[in-house]
Model the fold of this input.
Amino acid sequence: MKSWKILSIFSTGGLGIVLVVSFVFLFLFTSPLKTSSQKKGKSPEGVEEIAKARDLTPQDIEAALKTYVPTGKYDDYLMFCSGGHSGQVLVIGLPSMRLLKLIAVFTPEPWQGFGYGSNESSDILKAGYMPVGKDRKLSWGDTHHPALTETNGDYDGQFLFINDKANARVAVIDLRDFETKQIIKTPNIISNHGTTYVTPNTEYVIEGSQYSTPLPFYNYAPIEQYQEKYRGLITFHKFDREKGRIDESNSFQIELPPYGQDLCDAGKKESDGWVFCNTFNTEMATGGIEQGKPPLEAGASQRDMDYLHVINWKKAEEVVKAGKVKEISGAKVIPLETAIAEGILYFIPEPKSPHGVDVAPRGDYIVISGKLDTHTTIFSFDKIQKAIAEENYEGKDPYGVPILNFKDVLVAQLEIGLGPLHTQFDNEGNAYTSVFIESTLAKWKLGEPYNSGDQAWTLVEKIPVHYNIGHLVCAEGDTVSPDGKYCVALNKWSIDRFTPVGPLHPQNFQLIDVSGDKMQLLYDMPIGIGEPHLCQIAKTDKFDPWLVYPETGFNPATMTKNPKAALAGKERIERKGDTVEVWMTAIRSHFNPEHIKVKEGDKVKLNITNIERARDATHGFGIDGYNINLSLEPGESNTVEFVADKPGVYPFYCTEFCSALHLEMAGYLLVEPKE
Ligand code: CUK
Ligand code: CUA
Done:
């Protein structure tokens, strides 16, 4: 049995805890509510009684005080998380861990009306379909890595990118309205993984492929020709910040050997201009378990070393400008031979089937973690540059890529634990590495100039997490100026942490206070939408979202006022041949017009504007039986086109409880039968 031992607190913490204890004591002794209400069968009252009744330890109370955000108060940080297979992005406040929003990205989302009839959202989704079998709808995505736009290596709060691993897509979300604006189907690759990561001024969004396929990607080549015909690719999506869109005409790709490229990170500060990507299958294993061959997992784990790709993207940009590219499926591709000849691509041996690659805040160190190695391995950017300048190679790979000498670019190897994966940083020269197999978060010290003497490259502390942590994310922890304060363990398994809800368990985000000498676990947040991978945490003051759209009749797809938007006083219905076009407004609590009379088979085009200017006065627009639902936020204008192919009478109504007379906010689509 746990007991309420307030004094035990002194053995476990520092000044912070003493302060909290003093606070709790002060509260206990001054609280007028200190009654023995429990005896009388009433609910417990006062801090002491409540704590006793709920079996809370002083540590629990401290954690609660650190995470509780009172009603009406805002969080200090926003955390943007991949929504995993849901294809969406989650927005969570820190330290409260309250879910604030789900942003529809790769998957239709009915509340937001994303992909449920509006032309604007359907066009965004359709742009991401595969060029082969274009009519096949893609209605899910496997989101892994969100990335906030950066200016000089720091989050600037303007845009967010997210990838879809399953179909090699990248999406752009505008953080003025927190809505998806663009989905790109990347040419020449089927799957991706090392994406989205941005260069320090968001010149490019980086996308590494994962499972190699024949090039161009819709070509067929038997698996026996893996080494000759299959290729990896890294894509540099040019970001046009002015337009808030990826500019495919200025994007390019670099052909790579079929090594199973994994995660990437962009250099920053002194390593700006370079990109680093891991691989886990330099064995070029393809599996074939059914033919008695070693399974892919064994085949890909034979060698002690794989290759970190070191890529000079500024040089690559020049090579593209000079026209030394092949055009493949409409994309500019730097062939592998050209990348080698121009000094764009180098390899560094890295132990063993690595996963995360993370660049330290000053851009000086590159941290690798090997899934099958108990170490993190740290390379020096300086040493890499020196080795390249001196052509200090230990050899070439079968494709002719120069391999730098491992020992000559190595700075340190730190024994971390079983299954280290990903690393982030704080403002005091510490690094934090997730350790998957042993379910811990490890804190360690970087070397010079972050820490000196025997402090450098030392393991400081490990904290258990629950369980099997994948990524971790720390406040601004992958930028040039990390904040420290909080890290969140993004755990794959929750096992016994929550009330059972069937065999599919929630995943578990654990908030950890890293501001003190000891790391402290503060809060468990079950995630019922899996499987999230990475998040980004940024201070809330970096964002300046709109509270209503800036003008009435605003089109969120173009982020401009739609000149054809329906406006108050201009509502009407016009027929041209078999096309019926409607200009409709929505305001509490009616649509205008309320009767839309068409003939069976007519094409119907609705232009609907929410003409409200009040904050949060959102209207929905659903048509029963037609699978249509729109979300019209204040000022927003949407269009929806459909064929009235089902005769009958179909109520349409406002799907958002907007006012006392919300139920009365309705009308009729009257589809008169043909004959
Ligand atoms: S991966 Cu998920 S735990 Cu896709 Cu970044 Cu490492
Ligand atoms: Cu408008 Cu309900």
